[in-house]
Amino acid sequence: MEEVLLDFANIPVEPPDVRSTCLQCERPTSVCWCVSLPTPPLCPRSRIILLQHPAEEKRCLRTAPMLRFGLSENKCLIYKGKRFPGRRRDLETILQEPNTILLYPSPDAVDLKSLLQNNNAETSFNLVLIDGTWPQAKAIFSSNPILHKIKQVKLITHSVSNYIIRTQPTEGCLSTLETATEALILLENDDGYRNLLRPLQTLCDFQLQNGAVSHQSKEFLISNNQYPKRIGKRLNKHKRSLGLPVRAGLPLDGDSSYRKPTRTIYTSLTNTPSETRPLRSRSELVLTMSS
Ligand SMILES: [Zn+2]
């Protein structure tokens, strides 16, 4: 009897049938983007502070972890929630520091570039970003008075989003990683920070090779009557908020009403042709925040 039990005990246990997962990015190892992270992680003078909407963490194509792991420890701090600072004393301290700035396109926001021109080149900043969709970011901003007291800045950039898998709200609207990267290039006066984008490129390449369709921005789809979620009055209302013509089939080019955005976030010069997304022929694109 004892011998039989011993035989059973010696039967090798089969490995559990699970896909191996990267411990860092928590994605299946076959689609892990960690190999494209800068090594060693980059260490800027300034810090990025992400105020992350709870829903953002659940998205499978989120970019905040790429930023966090691409930067040295404590150079990208992520705080999750809808109320800030909440009970987090460390965050409250950061939000009240004089060198803290908030990237948010309020009417009072100043161009980050011009802010830097008026500061000592060695100044380090706490750059606060709200991580979420635009409606989520707007809600977080309006319901957290402490954010209103922080100096607000905006980015004026030449970049158009590389993040082509997830539909962007407007042409050229940047993901969290792309936004932080553009800001760090300015803050540190170092184009080397562009290396932070490599994991995103890896991810997009992988998704496209495996059948993902590159998405047009909502702005593009709406302007071409291809956006499925809004019809009739809602579509027209949304078009008006984007400054787009409301009559169906109107060509964009030559339409002057397009240049009346409700609120400007970034001004983007889209001179770089994109293979995955047809661009408008006009060279200047004023991006708007849909309200
Ligand atoms: Zn990984």
From TrEMBL:
EC number: 2.5.1.25
Family as reported in the entry's similarity comment: Belongs to the TDD superfamily. DTWD2 family.
Domain of life: Eukaryota
Keyword presence, S-adenosyl-L-methionine: yes
Keyword Transferase: yes
Name the UniProt record assigns to this protein: tRNA-uridine aminocarboxypropyltransferase
Pfam family for this entry, one: DTW
Domain DTW: 18-212
Organism: Zophobas morio
Spans traversing the lipid bilayer: none
Catalytic activity: a uridine in tRNA + S-adenosyl-L-methionine = a 3-[(3S)-3-amino-3-carboxypropyl]uridine in tRNA + S-methyl-5'-thioadenosine + H(+)
InterPro entries: DTW, DTWD2/TAPT
GO BP field: tRNA processing
GO molecular function: tRNA-uridine aminocarboxypropyltransferase activity
Region feature Disordered, mapped onto this chain: 269-291
Keywords: S-adenosyl-L-methionine, Transferase, tRNA processing
